[in-house]
Amino acid sequence: MQNLAIALHGGAGTITPASMTPELEKAYKQALSYALNQSYQVLEKGGSALDAVELAVVLLEDSPLFNAGRGSVFTKEGKHEMDAAMMCGKTLEAGAVAGIRSIRNPVRLTRAILEHSDHVFLSGYGAEEFARKYKIDFAPEEYFYDQHRYQQWREVRDTDIFMLDHTEERKFGTVGAVARDENGDLAAATSTGGMTNKNYNRIGDSPVIGSGTYANNKTCAISCTGHGEFFIRAVVAYDVSCLMEYKGYTLQEACEEVVMDKLVKFGGEGGLIAVDSKGELALPFNSEGMYRACRSSGKEGRVAIYKD
């Protein structure tokens, strides 16, 4: 079991010690650590990278701490619209959904699309119809209700303001995971509830293959978190892969070029997690903090929130 590796994130943005209570910081770290350990065990037992990233994202979707699945923020209409994507680095097959409601774990639906559909990207009611066909779990509206997020939405629901997650500070509440398994296969998955008070069925970068999510065994697997409009325009995930494939950059060099230079120059804030074909990991971000965790063969797991 050489070069096993997994990394996961729970969002990025203005995340500082001053903005966190000790109790909340502990809760975030425990949730990240649990998802990391459970998904790494999948790899240790010979499971696929796809299995590992799916489980990691499911566990983060199940936590109300993160803006995905159960913790998804409220839209302008007071509803929840979730986006997600998954990609297999071995086959370049992918599954993605946008604007779905009532799906308990959107990432499970992306896996079903990847494996059972000739399509890549489904949205709205059609995606939900596909979910029923493949017995993906639904959940009632109250399952997605969080009092704190509801209160934050009430403060802006009668305005044209949208918020980058659930506080007045800048937080991008996406979750995601990338992994390399014992066969050398890579995979990536990303899931989000989008922006508080978003209108017009807005869709961010998370479900867009090549922007928020990408995996290719030749290069790397990427899951992004940030201000989605900028990540779409910069085609961030694929840009990292291209720098590696066509210019011979290392994973770290490519990530630094895209996240710390290209994005910064035109106002893009956030970060990403990445793993390459050798099992090397990179977790760069240009914001104040990023909820993140990683583990690889021969190394202890690491969980962090703030800048090092």
Automatic annotation (TrEMBL):
Residues reported in the UniProt entry to bind substrate: R202, I203, G204, D205, T225, G226, H227, G228
Keyword Protease included in the entry's annotation: yes
Transmembrane segments: none
Gene3D superfamilies, A to Z: (Glycosyl)asparaginase
GO molecular function: hydrolase activity, acting on carbon-nitrogen (but not peptide) bonds, in linear amides; peptidase activity
Active site positions, chain numbering: T174
Record keyword Iron present: no
One BP term from GO: proteolysis
Site (Cleavage): G173, T174
Swiss-Prot/TrEMBL keywords: Autocatalytic cleavage, Hydrolase, Protease
Full protein name: Isoaspartyl peptidase
Organism of this sequence: Pontibacter virosus
